[in-house]
Design goal:
Blueprint lengths: L8 E10 L4 E9 L8 E6 L11 E5 L10 E4 L1 E2 L5 E6 L11 E7 L5 E7 L7 H9 L5
Antiparallel strand pairs: 1-2, 1-9, 2-3, 3-4, 4-5, 6-7, 7-8, 8-9
């Protein structure tokens, strides 16, 4: 992907446990660098407990003794590409970031895999740049 000098770390997850209310994923592989996320992550429904909008699911990492105490990172905002979502992490230090970071989520069709690309300390400063980045998303 063309993000100027910005690099991303690709995390590939496999479904570990799937329930009606959430799905837990287990880390399978990290490409391009070292792991920025946790080995277990969870995608869960957004329960409208904040003023956030434009998404149905939340991304949570397992960085505490229980899922309820672990950090909610971002909502998964839809794109025009089927299975591709984006979000951000503005909480400093959660994923090794010092400022707002972009996360791309891609559900690989016909598999139980989820690809998460983390752009630490990079977030497009306008919608045009974000849309161009989303158009260039590649799964390989």
């Amino acid at each position: 992907m063309n993000t100027g000098n910005e690099n991303f770390v690709r995390h590939i997850y496999q479904v570990n446990k799937e329930l009606k209310s959430y799905t837990i994923y287990q880390l399978v592989e990290v490409k391009n660098n070292t792991n920025l996320l946790t080995d277990l992550i969870r995608i869960e429904p957004f329960l409208n407990k904040s003023r956030a909008n434009n998404f149905n699911d939340y991304f949570r990492i397992r960085n505490n003794s229980s899922w309820q105490k672990s950090n909610l990172i971002t909502g998964l905002k839809p794109t025009t590409t089927k299975g591709l979502f984006f979000g951000d992490c503005s909480k400093v230090g959660i994923i090794g970031n010092t400022k707002k970071s972009l996360l791309l989520f891609y559900y690989v069709p016909n598999t139980n895999q989820l690809i998460i690309d983390v752009f630490t300390d990079y977030y497009p400063y306008n919608d045009y740049l974000l849309q161009n980045l989303l158009k260039e998303f590649k799964t390989t």
